[in-house]
Amino acid sequence: MNAHINGINLAYTDQGRGTPLVFLHAFPLNRTMWEPQVKGLSDRYRVITVDLRGHGESDAPLWRYTLDLFADDVRGLLDFLSISSAVLLGLSMGGYLIFAFHRRYADRIKALVLADTRAEADTPEMSAWRFGLAQRVYKEGSRAVADEMLPKLLSPSGSASKPALVQQVRAMITSTQVSGIVGDLMAIAERPDSVARLKEIACRTLVLVGEQDVLTTPADNERIAAGISGARFQIIPSAGHLSNLEQPEAFNRAVTSFLPG
User: Fold this and answer.
1) In terms of Cα–Cα distance, which of 94, 245, 218 is closest to 162?
2) Cα angle vertex 115, ends 260, 77, to 5°?
3) How distant is the alpha carbon of residue 182 from its chain centre?
4) Which of 234, 231, 165 is nearest to 204 (CA)?
5) Per-residue pLDDT tens digits for 204-233
6) How far apart are CA 258 and CA 256, in angstroms?
């Protein structure tokens, strides 16, 4: 399905009934990363996944991207679907997007699930890495970011024992248009620090992280939970950064135990 939002076409799926859950994907993937959650949760909830601009089947305009712009797109999709408020679930970049969305549209949030993400802004060294990666992608295409990031997205055991999953993740990355990848890297590098704002999050919040996540570590995620009053923190065993894909059953159980039916 497609919706015309903020001058572009956004692709999304909308399956099931009940409390709306809106899933926000990681960099540089697309909404298909949430297939295990669509299959496992849509019998209890209304599960919505969206390709952010620059990803999947959504338009990928060549222009400056920001997390606030992504937040405006998600707000526009909620309006299009006549959803006044929803549970937002975001992993990695999807978590950064949740922080931006909360700054702008906190009244549209029922509850939050933050997975494998970070509240701190980039260090100068990390920003420089993103800049360098953007230059490589511009010259070499999306394969450059796949080669750079794929070894860090799954646990060592997952990478070794789940070749089909490795290929699935690589295919998602290499199908992403260069304009979307470069736009993401700029948006992420320019994101503000959200640590001081954690105390302003008043809704029910669950923070999940893969036990072997090397990109946004368990310590990074535990700090988020500690900063949000009443937040629940849970580690997903035997999972790396893409904890929802590597251990989907455990991820889904954590979500269903947190949310009302």
Assistant:
1) 245
2) 70
3) 17
4) 231
5) 999 999 999 999 999 999 999 999 999 999
6) 5
CB count in 10 Å sphere of residue 81 = 16
Indicate the helix (H) or strand (E) that contains 252: helix 248-258
Mean per-residue pLDDT for 168-179? 97
pLDDT reported for residue 231: 98
Helix residue spans in 10-66 (DSSP H): 35-41
Which CATH number covers residue 78?
3.40.50.1820
Q: What is the CA radius of gyration of the chain?
A: 17
User: How many domains would you assign to the chain?
Assistant: 1
Structural domain for 35, as ranges: 2-258
HSE-CB for 245 with a 13 A CA cutoff: 30
How many of the other CB atoms lie within 10 Å of CB of 100?
22
The secondary structure of residue 11, as a DSSP letter, is E
**CB neighbours (10 Å) of residue 258?**
17
Question: In the prediction, which pLDDT does 261 show?
Answer: 62
Write the single-letter amino acid at 239: A
